[in-house]
Specification:
- With about 600 residues, the chain is α+β, with helices and mostly antiparallel strands.
- Helix content is about 30%, strand content about 25%.
- The structure holds one RNA strand of 79 nucleotides.
Length: about 600
RNA sequence: GGGGCUGUAGCUCAGUCGGUUUCAGAGUGCCGGCCUGUCAAGCCGGAGGUCGCGGGUUCGAGUCCCGUCAGCCCCGCCA
């Protein structure tokens, strides 16, 4: 081997060292995690991916190695040859997995020095994310990020192993493709050899996986990168990974079954958590009625109670007028919260108003039970008794009521319900409550554009009982679609697809997609469906969100090696950046920016 | 496209009412010295700042106002 390249190569890793290694000579390679210079003895905590071990440099035993240890600094890459020995009595470090032993250095070699790092994961402070992202390769050295990367890897391997056992094939689909029918903005890639034409980066492999069903693959999956040019959030990146799945000859139950067992195994093998299967199921309509949202957090009760009929003729006009104008009156019972102070109640009212409610009616349940509230005098005895009964209220409870149009009642009470669960400490740490939400509406009415839109996507199969409604009342058509919600987070979305040309045509008609447009956008798919498309369906659990959940992270960036900022930039590399003029010429692209001040 | 929070030393932050012996400060890191059992080593010393950037108000701005840039959170959008 050439001079300067040969080095003291490791034959052991740091994290495994323990009493069973005592007396052995090992060679370790790693980074200087910390150095403690006592003038005579120097201690170096050497770190590799597996962990940290203390190396002792003693000038009286190995002066040359000691001299090198004097020169090294944090994050230097170091090779050490030495003897593992039990630490002297009283100097063991119980905080460190390898803390019973240490390595007495005989020889050391600096494999590479390091600049002083701009920040250290050993600081007790939390480094600003801007700095972490700029030096992401340093940030990824932290135990937290290493653990997240490993967890993500383990999750991917578990999913692959499980689906392989179930007979799925992993098929890679192209990244350069056509716009997908998902409704988000596409990332476009210009074609050099076909001037003026563009690829779209896939928002999902939706059409391709359906083609794989036509192709007879029967069970497909892919850890698929999905790209959408939309604004970012704590749980949204421009590129994310889905466990994309599709199966032939299935009904929703078949898909639920395989996903439930997959997640059960995934939670078990990554974090040792037990998911009970089958998961609970409710319809979209029921979710909205009971929780005000299509992704309810089932870790706590606080269900919405409907009072609309009870107060329809109330003297309290906030209630009766709302009902008369087609609105609803609903509320939640916050058990044992009647002790809330006036300022706490005002604070809750503000919270409800921030989430679109016009106001919040609160009633304290006192001994009797009787209701205490500024509005109590407007409520008849029957109404008060009815409220107490309907809320199953007991002295000490706090009733929170919103009267408004149904959508606003749902939204504000959903927020209020989650906020009260937080304030009341109703969420048990480590609780997992998966839930299938089924039978989403097929269409949503776009008021601005005065037309129907697909709630999921246009290849979603309508509920068999609702096929007639396609002609008469599209708004009531339920889709054979389903979401998987865990702890209030939407984790997967899927459906049974349309494999019959006549139904597909009807859907396109309703969505206002002309035959010409359908031909242009998905002609390749429709054509394929004419050659014996099997009944099929699928689902796509969001892999980043899953890992985020398993890792207990609040932010998707913590489980992605090189994430982007909210402005979709990579602070480390500076992407996106200007293109080379020559490259633009070859692509026949002229950049025209808005005038600058 | 909109709302909110943040921006002061490499990093994490304090900086009160606009001034005066707190106005360029602390901890940590860094550099140097001492130190043979530390593990957040210790002790002594030192260097280090365009207070994000631009403009304005004022006798005087880290501090007040306007604009702008960047990061984060949220709404819209989207999964």
């Amino acid at each position: 081997m050439a001079e300067g390249i040969a080095f003291l190569k490791r034959n052991c890793i740091c994290g495994v060292l323990g009493m069973d290694y005592v007396g052995r000579e090992v060679i370790l390679n790693g980074w200087v995690n910390r150095r403690r210079d006592h003038g005579g003895l120097i201690f170096v905590d050497l770190r590799d991916r597996s962990g940290i071990v203390q190396v002792v440099f003693d000038p009286s035993h190995a002066p040359e190695a000691h001299a090198i240890a004097q020169e090294v600094r944090t994050e230097y890459v170091l090779a050490v040859r030495g003897i593992v020995r039990k630490r002297p009595a009283g100097t063991e470090n119980p905080e460190l997995p390898t803390g019973e032993v240490e390595v007495v250095a005989r020889e050391a070699e600096v494999l590479n020095p390091s600049e002083t790092p701009p920040f250290s994961h050993q600081d007790r402070t939390q480094t600003d994310e801007f700095i972490r992202l700029k030096y992401r390769y340093l940030d990824l050295r932290s135990p937290r990020m290493q653990a997240n990367l490993e967890l993500r890897h383990l999750a991917a391997q578990t999913v692959r192993a499980f689906l392989t056992e179930e007979g799925f094939w992993e098929v890679e689909t192209p990244i350069l493709f056509k716009p997908t029918p998902e409704g988000a903005r596409d990332y476009l890639v210009p074609s050099r050899v076909s001037p003026g034409n563009f690829y779209a980066l896939p928002q999902s492999p939706q059409t391709l996986k359906q083609l794989l069903m036509v192709a007879g693959v029967e069970k497909y999956f892919q850890l698929a990168r999905c790209l959408r040019d939309e604004d970012l959030r704590a749980d949204r990146q421009p590129e994310h990974t889905q466990i994309d799945m599709e199966m032939s000859f299935v009904e929703p139950d078949d898909i639920f079954d395989v996903v439930e067992r997959m997640l059960q195994r995934l939670f078990q093998e990554t974090i040792g958590a037990e998911l009970k299967i089958p998961f609970e199921r409710i319809t979209y309509a029921e979710a909205l009625r009971r929780f005000g949202t299509d992704k309810p957090d089932m870790r706590f009760p606080l269900e919405l109670v409907d009072l609309t009929d009870l107060v329809a003729n109330s003297q309290f006009q906030v209630f009766s007028r709302t009902v008369a104008s087609g609105g609803q009156v609903k509320g939640i019972n916050a058990k044992d919260c009647a002790c809330y102070t006036r300022s706490q109640l005002d604070n809750l009212t503000d919270f409800a108003k921030q989430h679109k409610a016009q106001g919040l009616v609160w009633l304290l349940v006192k001994e009797g039970p009787v209701l205490e509230s500024p509005v109590a005098k407007f409520l008849s005895e029957e109404e008060q008794a009815g409220l107490i009964e309907r809320f199953q209220a007991r002295p000490g409870d706090l009733l929170l009521i919103v009267a408004d149009q149904p959508a606003i009642v749902a939204e504000s009470l959903d927020w209020l319900r989650r906020e009260m669960a937080r304030r009341m400490g109703l969420i048990q740490p480590g609780a997992w409550k998966p839930l299938w939400v089924v039978e989403f509406p097929m269409f949503a009415w776009n008021e601005e554009e005065k037309r129907w839109e697909a709630e999921h996507h246009p290849f979603c199969m309508p509920h068999p009982d609702d096929l007639d409604l396609l002609d008469t009342d599209p708004g009531r058509v339920r889709a054979q679609s389903y979401d998987l919600v865990i702890n209030g987070v939407e984790l997967a979305s899927g459906s049974i697809r349309i494999h019959r040309r006549d139904i597909q045509q009807k859907i396109f008609d309703l969505l206002g997609i002309t035959p010409e447009e359908a031909e242009k956008r998905f002609g390749f798919l429709l054509k394929a469906f004419e050659y014996g498309a099997p009944p099929h369906g699928g689902i796509a659990p969001g892999f980043d969100r899953l890992v985020m959940m398993l890792a207990g992270e609040e932010n998707i960036r913590e489980v992605i090696a090189f994430p982007k900022t909210q402005r979709a930039q990579c602070l480390m590399s500076g992407a996106p950046c200007e293109a080379d003029p020559q490259a633009l010429r070859e692509l026949h692209i002229k950049v025209e920016l808005p005038p600058q001040e």
